[in-house]
Design brief:
single chain; 269 residues; alpha/beta; Rossmann fold; 7-stranded parallel β-sheet; 8 helices; 7 strands; 14% strand; binds nicotinamide-adenine-dinucleotide
Length: 269
């Protein structure tokens, strides 16, 4: 029970639909937090998906609520945070998991429009900033809390084909460091998680639908880029990294970026 008496709010706690049965990073994290006794507020722009996550938690005997909010709308973010606080009287963990890429229209530079750039930045980076902005007064009053920002190894991948997603995730890493320094005096920690190639519905099933290629082919292509055993990770790998960083075991760790990528970022050349 590594998160006993903790309250967590997870932005993007649903997941993209997919036929494979794979679990998304946010949903897996919500489940793992609840298994470790955290109370979990599952926030997503897709309320049905947030409800599915809360129902999975309830089925395992955990305590969760679902909340609809689009993280680009400040009033909706404020309402979600207030809903969580009103229910449990505190917020110990903010997990910013929302992220979009090709579904937001990401593309190589020559094809990017300012509208696309702003849309993806708004969801991936501004959304996280808004959640931090409105959770921090609660955490400061409590003299403690943990912020986890889900960035991506793509923040460093120069071979990545599209431009906005990696830029937004690089921004997430720097935002995390700023958050860590500006709030360390209040006992609040902020760390970034950098997933590599994960087998989630968003990353694989959606690509199968978009390209018409087989799942096996896309999986093999992604597996081949992973040094560790040549296999992608799963949402559970992100969840267990998040669990460690959220728990008191990581009480002296702030301002770091933790790759969860099977060694992808360690490879040079
Ligand atoms: N899957 C990967 O290979 C991979 C790799 C690196 C980083 N990541 C990051 O991990 C995170 C989760 O990835 P995933 O593959 O589980 O994706 P996912 O799409 O299944 O999960 C993201 C959730 O965010 C929600 N969401 C999207 N826009 C929103 C908005 N404006 N407001 C509120 N909710 C919104 C979606 O409905 C979805 O439930 C993302 O930040 C992604 O960039 C994923």
């Amino acid at each position: 029970m590594r998160l006993q008496d903790k309250v967590a709010i997870i932005m993007g706690a649903g997941q993209a639909p997919g036929a494979s049965g794979a679990i998304g990073n946010g949903r897996a994290t919500a489940c793992v937090f609840a298994r470790e006794a955290a109370k979990v507020c599952c926030v997503d722009r897709n309320l049905d998906s947030a409800k599915e996550t809360a129902a999975l938690i309830a089925k395992e005997g955990g305590d969760a609520i679902a909340w609809a909010a689009d993280v680009t709308e400040e009033a909706a973010v404020v309402a979600a945070i207030a809903g969580c606080f009103d229910r449990w009287g505190r917020i110990d963990i903010l997990h910013n998991n929302v992220g979009i890429s090709v579904e937001g229209g990401d593309a190589p530079l020559a094809e990017i429009t300012p509208e696309t750039f702003q849309r993806i930045m708004n969801v991936n980076l501004c959304g996280a900033m808004l959640a931090c902005k409105h959770v921090l007064p609660i955490m400061r009053a409590q003299a403690g809390g943990v912020i986890l920002n889900v960035a991506s190894a793509a923040a460093y991948w120069t071979a990545y084909p599209n431009v906005v997603y990696p830029a937004s995730k690089a921004g997430m890493v720097t935002l995390t460091r700023q958050l860590a320094m500006q709030n360390a005096g209040y006992g609040i920690r902020a760390n970034a998680i950098l997933p590599g190639r994960m087998d989630t519905p968003m990353a694989v099933d959606r690509r199968v639908e978009a390209t018409g290629r087989s799942r096996a082919e896309i999986v093999a292509e992604r597996d081949a880029t992973v040094p560790l055993r040549g296999k992608m990770g799963t949402g559970w790998d992100v969840a267990y990294a998040a669990l460690f960083l959220a728990s008191d075991e990581a009480r002296f760790i702030t301002g770091v970026e933790l790759p969860v990528d099977g060694g992808a970022l360690a490879r040079v050349g």
